[in-house]
Each structure stands twice: as structure tokens, then as C-alpha cells.
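<instruction>
Derive C-alpha cells from the sequence
<data>
Labelled lines for chain and fold
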Amino acid sequence: MGVADEIQEKLARAFSPESLEVIDESESHRGHSGWRDGGETHFRIIIEAEELMKLGRIERHRAIHKALSPEPMARIHALAITVKQG
């Protein structure tokens, strides 16, 4: 299972989101710090989940990181998070 699939699965299980998009942006970071052959190093998450809307920005990020820990967080270099409002 790829990292994007792991992220998708863990966030779906943790938050039952109304919408969830996991985008592998690794190729656009080729040659940058943390990039490696095969990609799966830089991701963007766009999520809409009622549970996250109750939290402040920092608490949202912490909740997402906690849901993903320890794997796949240990294998990625960068994670951009957008929480959409319904």
C-alpha cells in the first residue's frame, strides 16, 4: 500500500470526513530537501470533517498528525493541510 493510500485510510477511519483528498506533490519538489527517488515525500491533504471544524487551526493539525502517527508520518517529509468548511 502506498503512503497516499495509508493517509487516506487513516484519516477516513479517524474523522469520517464528508470529503477527503490526498495529493502527492512530491514530483514538484524534486531536488529539494527531503525528496527521494520514488516520491511519496510531500503531500497535501484537503479534508472536510465536522470533528475538525470544532478545533482551532493548530489543534486540527495536531489531530491529523496524531491520526497518522507513527506511520506514515515517519516516511514523509512535508504535509500541507487544508480543512474545508461545509
In short: The chain is about 35% helix and 20% strand. The chain has a mean pLDDT of 88. The first strand starts at residue 19 and ends at 24.
